[in-house]
Write a structure and sequence with these properties.
Number of helices: 10
Number of strands: 9
Strand content: 5-15%
CATH architecture of the largest domain: 3-Layer(aba) Sandwich
Order of helices and strands: HEHEHEHEEHHEHEHEHEH
Low-confidence stretches: 6-28, 125-149
Mean pLDDT: 82
Strand order of the largest sheet: 5-7-6-8-9
């Protein structure tokens, strides 16, 4: 983090504390309705907190729907809400502004997702044909300049790993609000069962395509690929803002032709221009593969509906191979 950004965050935190003191706001942990105030850093963690917490929690998502989580900046009130929350749920390394707010706030109860399941290295690296396991291939890749120091953060895209996060969020809620611990445990078990069913759907749907390549604009799908035996060929690295080199693009084109790739996947929260250009050069289709970092319309979609659409889109791409 740059010194300028760190100073801005410190000023925001100080301003927020003064503002809350002046207006007497108690923050999410001191709700008049008796619910536990929970602050979640972005959608996948917000969704777990809401589904497991149910009527006993009020969840504030620091990342608004439709906003790219990596680019998050926090307002003074958001920084203050981290310190006053009954529970903070976040993933270290994904959003520097949140990491700094947690550090400054001295939040007492925190669930940090990467402490629950180890992060793998799915970064693109120099000249290799794969990095971080069989699920991630870096065709002619240069070193990724903005890689997350802690590893690939996109653990929620693997339903089995997401279930581990669900267990951790459930424990955190029970510790923060013991009066409703039994209900949190029941809701956690229900969420884990739903994720096991989703995992079975992915296993069945992708079983015929083990070993197949898929091309995506952003290296977000390494965990999903590793789980189900398919291979990610990413245009950009784990950080969606990293720029692919001409050599990488040329290598991806060669690989796509050699392996009968039919589709170049892009994402809902990022610019599809690069994926569309690559697809046009190769005379391929484009389709969405959503990293579920945010949901534009939570009234219509959720983690499960988006993941099932991802599965359908992968099956269509693999099944349409020439």
């Amino acid at each position: 983090m740059s010194p300028r950004r760190a100073l801005a965050l410190m000023a925001a935190a100080a301003a927020a504390v003064l503002a809350l003191a002046a207006c007497g706001a108690g923050g999410p942990a001191a709700r008049a309705d008796g619910r536990l105030g929970v602050v979640a850093s972005f959608y996948p963690l917000q969704y777990l907190a809401e589904q497991i917490g149910g009527p006993h929690v009020a969840v504030t998502d620091l990342t608004s729907p439709g906003v790219e989580p990596h680019d998050l900046e926090l307002s003074p009130r958001q920084v203050a809400s981290v310190g006053s929350a009954g529970l903070v749920v976040y993933l270290k390394g994904l959003q520097p502004a949140v990491d700094e707010a947690v550090r400054q706030s001295g939040a007492r109860r925190v669930v940090e997702a990467s402490s629950l399941t180890p992060l793998a290295d799915h970064h693109l690296d120099e000249g290799g044909d794969g990095a971080g396991g069989s699920g991630d291939r870096a065709a002619g890749a240069a070193a990724e300049p903005h890689a997350h120091a802690t590893g690939d953060p996109h653990v929620w895209l693997d339903p089995a790993r997401y279930a581990v996060l669900a267990r951790g969020v459930g424990r955190g809620l029970a510790e923060a609000d013991p009066a409703h611990a039994a209900d949190y445990r029941r809701r956690t078990d229900r969420m884990v069962a739903r994720l096991a069913a989703l995992d079975a759907e992915f296993r069945t749907g992708l079983a015929p395509y083990r070993g197949r390549d898929f091309v995506t604009s952003h290296a977000a799908f390494g965990y999903l690929a590793d789980r189900y035996g398919i291979r990610q060929v990413a245009v950009s690295g784990v950080d969606p803002e990293s720029e692919p080199s001409p050599a990488r693009l040329a290598a991806i084109q060669r690989q796509a032709r050699a392996h009968g790739v039919t589709t170049v996947f892009f994402e809902t929260l990022s610019n599809p221009k690069l994926a569309a250009t690559l697809a046009a050069d190769l005379h391929l289709r484009t389709a969405v593969l959503d990293p579920v970092e945010g949901v534009k319309d939570p009234s219509r979609d959720d983690y499960f509906s988006v993941q099932r659409q991802n599965l359908k889109n992968l099956e269509t791409a693999f099944g349409g191979a020439r």
